[in-house]
Structures are given as C-alpha cells and as structure tokens.
Amino acid sequence: MLAAVSLQLPIPDPQQIVGFALILTRVGAVLSLTPVISGKTIPLKLKAIIAIALTLFTLPLIPVPAELAAVPLPELFILMLREAVIGLAIGLALGAIVAAWSLGGAVIDIITGFSYGGVIDPQYGNQSSILQQLYVLLAGVIFITVGGEQWLVSATVGSFQKLPLGAAINPADFLELALAVITTVFITGLGVIAPLLIALLVTDAAFGLIARAAPQTQVMQLEFPAKIAVALFLLVATLPWMAPYFVRSSTHLLGLIF
C-alpha cells in the first residue's frame, strides 16, 4: 500500500497579507499612469497580471513593519490611500512626458492645420489630431526602446527605500511636486517641437512678406502645403534627437520625485 501524500500550501501571516496589499496599491497606482501600460489598448486583466507580478517580485525586497499586522481596518484604508498617492506621483513623472509630447503635437497641428482632421487616439481612446497622435505613439515607442520598463521597476523599488511602508508624507511636498511637474510638462512640450515651431513661424513670416509685396498672389493656397511640407520634413529630421531628449526629460522628472 502506498502512503497517502498530503500537500500543504504555506499560509501567509497577517503581516505578509498587509504588506502585499500596500505594495500592490502603490504598484497599481504607478501602472495607472505609466506610458503604454496605462493605455486603453492594454486589457484590464493584463494590467492586473502585471501589477500582481511586479508586487510579488517586490515583496521579498521590501521590509514590512511588524506593527502593520495589527492595524485596524480604517487605518489600513488610510495607509492604502497614502500608498496610492505615492504611486500616482511616481507614475506622473513617467506619464507627464507623454502628456508633454501630446501637448507639443497639438500645438503643431493647430499651426499646420492638421487640427481640422480629428482621429481616435488608440493610446487613450479620445479624439486627437494627427501629429498629436503621432507624437504620443513616438513617445511610447521610445519609452519601450530605451528600457522604460526597467525605469518603472527601479523607480518603484527605490520608492520603498525613500518612503517605506507606513511612512508619513508631507502634503506640501506633493503640492510642490505637482507644480514642478506641470511646469516641466510645458517646457518639455515646447522643447520637443522647438525646431518645428521656429521653422513654421519663419514660414508664416515669409508668406506674410510675400502677401505684402505681391497682394495678387494666392498666399493661402500656397502657405498650407508649404507649412505641412516643412513640418513633416523637420519631424523626420529631428527623429534621432528625440530619444536622447526623452531620456533627459524622464530622468529630470524622476529626479523631482526622489
């Protein structure tokens, strides 16, 4: 007779359960604003799997205070809310770059006239113009190409060293961070389109002089094709410069977080 073999799975203690819940809250908040992963093209189930996998990877590396195992439920909810705020701040640093590039693309679309033709943005599901969508997709491709997922893991794990589980946070620091991120978004958005913006303004000025010198010339019929050609040419010409600029901007925003 063969002896019956019984398998018993290890039962996690309350300390591990609370630590898993808090880490998952922070990780989920980070992923909710991370480029590419936060897009509507990624199924919700896949996002949940990524969040749980990253939490399981992070859990052995993070010390969970023993006193968290005995916290009451209302205090645990406050701790989870605090972790969500920290996670949103980290995700904001990465997601703000894509928002900045989207802002820059929208400005170029208005100047060139592409804003008259709206398309559906597959990343976020809302209506956007052509170059705005192109800049968002370029930012997502660069994020994956330069190893953005490694930044995500490093920033998430490093955040637990700077702000451990259960640590108090200063609301004034987050207000200062929000103002710095908003300012950086506008500066980054203008920086990524600076060559195109200057060239298009020069093109407008040139056609303005032509209109004054030769009023009989159909300037409007010539200006729109010329501006589109200039914008597309400079967009292709500045592609090698975009990846280093993306890396510098992301590093700067992550530096603001930590």
Describe this structure in words.
By secondary structure, this protein is an all-alpha fold. The protein has one domain (14-257). Helices cover 71% and strands 2% of the residues. It has helices at 14-31, 44-58, 73-112, 130-145, 148-162, 171-192, 194-213, 219-237, 239-257, and strands spanning 118-120, 127-129. The protein has a two-stranded antiparallel ribbon with strand order 1-2. The radius of gyration is 24 Å and the shape is elongated.
Overall structural domain count: 1
Order of SSEs: HHHEEHHHHHH
Helix content: over 70%
- Beta-strand content estimate: under 5%
| Structural class by secondary-structure content | mainly alpha
- Find the count of extended strands (DSSP E, 2+ residues): 2
DSSP summary: helix tally: 9
Mean pLDDT: 76
Report the principal-axis shape. elongated
Neighbour order of strands in the largest sheet: 1-2
Which runs of at least 5 residues are low in confidence (pLDDT < 50)?
Answer: 1-7
Helix-strand blueprint:
Elements: H1 14-31, H2 44-58, H3 73-112, E1 118-120, E2 127-129, H4 130-145, H5 148-162, H6 171-192, H7 194-213, H8 219-237, H9 239-257
Antiparallel strand pairs: 1-2
Helix pairs in contact: 1-2, 1-3, 3-4, 3-5, 3-6, 3-9, 6-9, 7-8
In short:
This protein has 258 residues and is mainly alpha-helical.
Record keyword descriptors for this entry.
about 0% strand, 2 strands, about 260 residues, mainly alpha
